[in-house]
Amino acid sequence: MRDLRRQALESGKTVSRKARSRLSTPASSTPNSAPPSRAASRSRAVSSAGSEEEEVGNLSDETSFRSVFIQFALCSIRRAQTPLAAQTLLTSYFSTNSIDELLNGDNPVTDAWRSDLADRIQELIDRKRSSVQGREKCLAIYARILTAQYAEEEIRGKEAELVVAFLKSIKAETSERETILATKALAMTVITSPSDLIYEAVCGPLKRVICDSASVPSKTAAVHCLGTCTFFGGASDEEILENMAYLLEIVASDGAFIEAQDEAGPVVAALEEWGSLSTLIDDLAEESEEAAECFVEQLSSNDASVQIAAGENIALLYEKSFRPLTEDDGATEFDEDDIVADPDDIHGVPKLVKSYDAYRRTDILKDSLAELASLHNRHMSKKEVKSVRTNFADILHSVEYPTHGPRYRNTISNKSGNRYGSGMAVKIHKQGVMKIDKWWKLHRLQALRKVLQDGFVTHYESNPVVFESLPIMITAPAHQSKAEKTRKINWETE
Predict the structure, then answer these.
(1) DSSP 8-state assignment for residue 489
(2) Which of 56, 276, 408, 430 could pair with 404 in a Cys bridge, judged by C-beta atoms 3.0 to 4.6 Å apart?
(3) For the segment 330-341, what is each residue's pLDDT rounded down to a tens digit?
(4) Could you give the CA distance from residue 127 to residue 125 in angstroms, rounded to a whole number?
(5) Looking at residues 75-91, what average pLDDT do you find?
């Protein structure tokens, strides 16, 4: 593969030693820690994990929607243990088409996207005599296909030329739409086929758009793209921390740092990407106080999305300030107030011990969070007020009880006798759920959903990069109470 940086930046700068030599980090086994999954996800093999059939969201057009369902049906049928089970699965997907038609026939719908993608790739690489409208359409189709399908094989070996083409559109900023679509296409490319070279190639151009673009939506899109490329594109820990500081500067200045004073879009994007990147860093002891102070200031924002994004980062900081208590820790090494046990005393769930103070003025913070949890604001819509109240009730609870994740419920189950606990989950067909019981999981899920949108389930099943970022799928109980069922989040409608 030709030198991606030489093509993208047209300079002789070499790829950093850290980016070339960084080894994949194995997933952490500690319950309160996120698996540091970024370059470790570069395996070309399709993951066999997540064998439960997953729920597919509505795609952008009927063809893509049907194509994904056909693929899932084929996988489900082949895994079925009996013909009756296969027939049942088929019926649940389609009202027509027999098993023989799907298994033995070459379905043109399933293969049409491949030829379409090949045409779009060629069109993107060969930009001669292309118009702005033509490039916009081509970028939109390319991004839509990569969102709806896992196309690593189809773009393999073409990543360098594609990234160069995307950067030309990003640098030129011929139109706002082309710039935004190019950042979307770039993000989908790096998630589909990660490379250690991508981050260093795209970091500079993306930051120039963030700082210099006259378009606020372009700035916002570039911030999200920078976060995705930092996460999956080969950035070292030092580069991750550098970008986290960069994003924090955007937040602390209310956007003025990038000439977007009081614009909520770039500030929310910076908050969200900071949270996502922070899940890759094991120890934030040195960064926690400054970051928390910055986020606390944003709680007084007039924009609900800014408040919620800042609050979720605060909850994450408190969660990360605790670690599992091990046998090697001395019995008298910590104060009793710094050791937190699981309230239900569930077997296998270790006690947690506070490693450092996430924020020194926790008492004042709790008062601010409590006010937001009971917010009355005439300047916000009823929907925004409800969202602020719900989210900050969760955030306050997690600050007080760091073992509790999002949507934690203290209600006792009549069946188990235990508390319902964290009730946030993504439905995986009728056979399972992805339980989001930690804030780091929520941040990663939201970051992936931001890019993948309705293609999240497709990539979670087939793309090892996505699965290794959230290796947490579990099977739901066969029988659930009405209360348990209503706690699941339907990501199709959000």
Answers:
(1) B
(2) 408
(3) 655 666 566 666
(4) 6
(5) 49
